[in-house]
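Subject: for your reference before the review

Hello V.,

The reviewers asked for a structural picture of the protein, and I figured it would be easier to keep everything in one thread rather than splitting it across files. Below is the amino acid sequence we used in the manuscript, unchanged from the supplementary table.
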Amino acid sequence: MEVIEVVSFRLAQGVTEDQFLVENGKVESDHVVHQPGFLSRQTAQGEDDEWLVIVHWESTEAADASMEGFMDAPATQAFLGAIDSDTYSMKRYSVVEDARSVG
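And here is what came back from the structure prediction:
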């Protein structure tokens, strides 16, 4: 069953939007897209300077496997340093309906 991972956070003090977007791009191209079960990833910015990353995985197992290596992967270190860990929140949801499949 497809899983949606929703991560929200604010940037670390002193990190600019441009700096973050560079690191966000690197973590996506150098790490996330290479994980088994990866489907898609989106990044959004809210009006209140909160950021949102939404990742779609083929299964809970794929999402779990990705997270096991994410914190220690060389490609993710600058990304992790760019976010305020005190504001970090991650939730997962199982897809029960998908409008893409409605005919």
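For the response letter, the relevant points are probably these. Residues 17-30 form the longest helix (14 residues). The chain has one domain: 3-96.

Happy to draft the paragraph if you're swamped.

O.
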